[in-house]
Amino acid sequence: MPVILENPESVPAPFADRFAHVARIPAGSSLLVLSGQVAVDENGRVIAPGDVKTQTEVIFGLVRDLLASYGGTLADVAHIRTFLLDLDRLPEYSQGRTPFFPGPLRPASTTVEVSRLFLPGVELEVEVLAAVGFA
Fold first, then answer.
1. What CATH number is associated with residue 89?
2. Which of 48, 65, 98, 101 could lock 54 by a disulfide, CB 3.0 to 4.6 Å apart?
3. pTM
4. 3-class secondary structure per residue, 10-57
5. Angstrom distance (rounded) from CA 71 to CA 73
6. Total structural domains in the chain?
7. What is the domain extent for residue 40?
């Protein structure tokens, strides 16, 4: 696995120990920067408008499939950046995301509330940075 998730002892543990402070990427990997992903079907229609959990599941399914196209898995994810319309819905986001990252440490992440996204009905957009080893 090219991504090493760590919480150095020299700093306090992250809040609720839910994520890694650092995602270290050793040399010899291919760095993948995924564009922001939203829950839309092949025709560009929003999937499950207003449903944060379902949209999260769709998005991380897309991320998993994108990484697989390069020989990677979700274990290669170093950082997740999430743009959420309402931070009060963070528990729903967490319910949808946690099954994709079941380990004790999850990738480094940032989640911010935004006032608007580009498609009505889209509740969140997710960007991912991953390091996939060369085959």
1. 3.30.1330.40
2. 48
3. 0.83
4. CCCCCHHHCCCCEEECCCCEEEEEEEEECCECCCCCECCCCCHHHHHH
5. 7
6. 1
7. 4-133
